[in-house]
Amino acid sequence: MLLIHCPYCEEARPEVEFVYGGEAHIARPVDPSTYSDEQWEEFLYIRSNPRGRHHERWRHTHGCGRFFNAVRDTVTDVFETTYKAGEARK
Amino acid sequence: MKRFSGFNLIGEAFRSHQGWPEHWPDKAPKASYDAIIVGAGGHGLGAAYYLAKKYGITNVAVIEKGWLGGGNTGRNTTIIRSNYLYDESAHLYDHAVKLWDGLSQDLNYNIMYSKRGVLMLAHNVHDVQSFKRHIHANRLNGVDNEWLTPEECKAYCPPLDISPRTRHPVLGGALQRRGGTARHDSVAWGYARAASALGVDIIQNCAVTGIRRGADGAVEGVETERGYIACRRVGVSAAGSTSLVMKMAGLDFPLESYPLQALVSEPVKPIFPCVVMSNTVHAYMSQSDKGELVIGAGTDQYTSYSQRGAFHIVEHTLAAICEIFPIFTRMRMLRTWGGIVDVTPDRSPILGKTPVKGLYVNCGWGTGGFKATPGAGDLLAYTMAHDEPHKINAPYNLDRFRNGRLIDEAAAAAVAH
Ligand SMILES: Cc1cc2nc3c(=O)[nH]c(=O)nc-3n(C[C@H](O)[C@H](O)[C@H](O)COP(=O)(O)OP(=O)(O)OC[C@H]3O[C@@H](n4cnc5c(N)ncnc54)[C@H](O)[C@@H]3O)c2cc1C
Ligand SMILES: [Zn+2]
Known about the structure:
The structure holds 2 protein chains of 2 kinds. Chain A is mostly beta strands. Chain A is 9% helix and 37% strand.
């Protein structure tokens, strides 16, 4: 089980308190009606799925309830850092 | 290749079985091939076999970064069934089930396909309705699947607890009698041996590190740890690593890779006659010929290439198993392990052409592609030989994520595959 540092609670808590939220920094369409099929495909389905550094969202569901971002290595599962939603990509 | 037969067996008995040749020779890569398959799992080896056998393309290499069958093929719980809801899925998976029948004879290798039946338990009203809907849909597609009452479930699988007082009462079940298990290693070895006998080179410990494309964008060859190999027809069957291989050709894929775990108990005498799946409580189980209970757990919630999952996932699974089968509460578990499964947004595979000419893909089988092994191999071979998908795999194209024609079997099949 992962130990995850919540940047809001400022505490490392067990993974079962958190829910994974998928790849981070995928921006919602600003003007959806102008989006082409290709852009929708990119937004909805294409994922980088890297081996190594991965930017991802987590939600501290059974704690403060807030979404935040993290950088985790997908080979070792070690977290490099976690940071608040809205902060620039690390 | 020396055929396995009663006659040869007796002959060999007289010389202490010293005359059996190796199953497949270790080959060094040639400078070029007519077709290359990336990934020597069951799917990739199957594709090479059918390319050689059905389409006469024998100048083929299967390139594997580790050892043959060491990916998900050698890590899965080997459940075979085809009782999927949608027409596209029923056609795809039943194509494979038809090939499982007779595969041992075809390969001259005992892959131990055992039609012991797959029983899917219904624990609530929603399950009952959804399974009955599956049964009707299956019948229309010529796929066997039948409804059993709780008493009939108990008769089919005696260790089951059907008392109404359990936390997850058994309200009935859907039974596919043609479903069952096969021996995973044998499937990989059988295909490798048969393909190799037809002239296919199997190259292990040799990762593909790049895909070279020409000025027109078409595939020209692959870079590997053992040098460059020219080839204009490359089929990628790399399961959990598919995103990485596709990136080598400049393609971003609708895939995510997750750890999926399984575990086995200490071996015991035969007690568990069939495969039981319970989607609602996330547990499924069968008994191997060695006597171990083979138990499938769930995926972790996060993407990873670590090939191992978390303990709380295993704990959750075992809690569910103990609830449905109280007689196993004192069994000890022997081993757990994980594989990395490649999951698409609609939980259906991608099997067909790619935007790059000469590059074909077979991926996205996620948690449930072992059952499809012969079918996927056959259809990838067909697609590579004709440069066109077969009508069974035509719906499983990449375009569906653009045009919205998803095959949303995930919603239909609930969780486990
Ligand atoms: C724990 C677990 C339980 C499962 N249970 C079931 C089940 O009960 N029923 C079922 O139907 N399915 C099940 N599955 C899913 C099933 O195992 C897979 O869908 C199926 O085996 C995929 O076969 P494959 O040949 O495509 O992949 P694999 O066997 O994973 O083969 C892919 C190969 O590609 C190689 N490769 C990757 N990258 C490269 C590269 N760059 N160069 C060269 N080679 C490369 C890998 O080393 C690997 O050997 C389970 C999976 C797991 C992990
Ligand atoms: Zn918090």
